[in-house]
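Suppose a colleague, Dr. K., hands you the sequence of a protein chain of 200 amino acids and asks what its three-dimensional shape might be. Before reaching for any lab equipment, you can write down a predicted structure in token form. Begin with the sequence itself:
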Amino acid sequence: MNSNLGIKTTYPFEHYDPSRKLILTFREVTMKDVNLLHSWMHEKHVIPYWRLNLPFKDYQAHVKEFLADDHQTLLIGEINGSAMSYWESYWVKDDVIGNYYEFNRFDQGIHLLIGSESYLGKGYIYPLLLTILYHKFQVSETTKVIAEPDIRNAKMIHVFKKCGFTPIKEIELPDKKGLLMFCERDVFERRWTDWKQNKF
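The predicted structure, expressed as tokens, is then:
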């Protein structure tokens, strides 16, 4: 991730979860991923919250525009080499969410979805989210990661809470009513330790 903050984090990033025998990998999206992402945006569990079930050419243009936006990095999350999730990692200070709270200039944010329905309900989201949070907190100046899931998405709100996020307030974003949530570094570090010790 190259940003106008002058901070660089590198991808692909890989982590091995020995207790679950999972290789977790995050790599940057390229235009070669558009077909896959387009198919995920048409999954019934994705449509209500992302609303990007567009015609292919329109979605292709959307991805091209997002890839050119240097305040965010688009990622594919993989488990044991299989692509199964999509992530948008961003800097709050250059994002619309920066209008909704008094941010620190090194605050980061995250959007995510599980792609294929076959990966739902199997607990994969927890090691993936914890791993990308670990990677985000490698930026020493970052003390907070935020999320703003759709207020209707109770399952995702539960996931964020379990991984160390605290609900702050409901907010009216341009495209949804969201729940602003904060994950502070010290809380995350406790969650990360619990996960590694199988106490999660």
